[in-house]
Design goal:
Largest sheet: 8 strands, mixed
Structural class: mainly beta
Oligomer: single chain
Order of helices and strands: HEEEEEEEEEEEHHEHEEEEEE
Number of domains: 1
Distance between the termini: 35 Å
Shape: globular
């Protein structure tokens, strides 16, 4: 497998929402989807591809980011959700070590039907001994379309060194429909990977190797027949009060895949601690009708 620089990101591999309509149609046809998201018209004897008038949730390329603060565990009252840029940074996290876990994964609508086999590439920067380690870590999840994955508190990075500026966190997902690739990736379901990427307080020469392999694996799978990249987002979390940035604090961050034109208002949504659901503030039985994931940040107790 080719050796990749851990700084690499997947800018040369577009998610399906950034593909041309004809490219997207070809990828959808590979998995047997012929009437979803794109349309074809004929003019002067040639086909013309275009996006459907009714976009599918997996077409959106924008994300909105919310934050659920640490709350009283003895209370059953709904917890307000704020935009990740509308919170106070936790200055105690400077130069500390944190744990990042995946707590929710909602696949409202991914290309194709049935159970989705989803490859994640998680990226973070590890600030250590005056250096920056670029981390990549792969995990896979099986999720029935329209439902949530059966996970909570799934470790991603354990012992991530924050530094004084904050952290950078990225996520790239691939909807894997190639049966051979599904079998290839089953090793990621082993206990070793379920424990997350454990980091130490000194430079680890193995980290660049692990990250390079993770990048190469994701790049290979994303480029293969029947496999479709769906989500790609970046979060920079720091300690400033610059209004257009997001802050780093202990709690849970929500990344929702939405259309760019969506006028999203986090004040209309709350976290229900009784059932662990994100629901409408006015309609408690209504959930978010988009793809989203929730990851949490907490301190590491050595």
């Amino acid at each position: 497998m080719t050796k990749y620089n851990p700084k690499y990101w997947f800018d040369d591999i577009p998610v399906i929402g950034k593909m041309t309509p004809s490219e997207a149609a070809r990828k959808l046809q590979e998995i047997g989807v012929v009437d979803s998201g794109v349309k074809v018209t004929r003019g002067r004897g040639e086909k013309r591809w275009g996006w459907s008038d009714k976009p599918e949730p997996w077409q959106y390329t924008s994300h909105t980011f919310g934050f659920i603060p640490v709350s009283n565990l003895n209370s059953s009252n709904p917890v307000e959700i704020k935009h990740a840029g509308d919170i106070e940074p936790d200055q105690s996290l400077k130069n500390s070590r944190i744990k990042i876990t995946l707590d929710r994964l909602r696949v409202f609508n991914y290309p194709g039907g049935g159970i989705h086999f989803i490859l994640f590439d998680f990226y973070a920067q590890n600030q250590i001994e005056g250096q920056t380690e670029h981390l990549h870590f792969n995990q896979i999840y099986r999720v029935q379309g329209g439902e949530q994955a059966g996970i909570i508190g799934y470790p991603i990075f354990v012992g991530l060194n924050v530094g004084s500026e904050g952290i950078a966190f990225k996520c790239f997902t691939v909807n894997v429909k190639n049966e051979d690739d599904e079998k290839l990736l089953e090793f990621l379901e082993g206990d070793t990977f379920k424990g997350g990427l454990k980091l130490i307080e000194t430079v680890n020469p193995l980290v660049p190797i692990i990250s390079s392999v993770a990048v190469g694996l994701t790049k290979m799978i994303a480029s293969r027949n029947k496999n479709i990249p769906v989500q790609d987002f970046y979060m920079g979390l720091d300690f400033t009060k610059t209004p257009t940035r997001a802050r780093l604090s202990q709690g849970s961050y929500i990344a929702v895949q939405i259309p760019e034109a969506e006028k999203w208002d986090w004040s209309k949504w709350v976290f229900n601690p009784v059932n662990g659901q994100i629901v409408s503030k006015d309609k408690p039985n209504e959930t978010i009708s988009y793809n989203y994931l929730v990851f949490s940040v907490s301190t590491v107790n050595d």
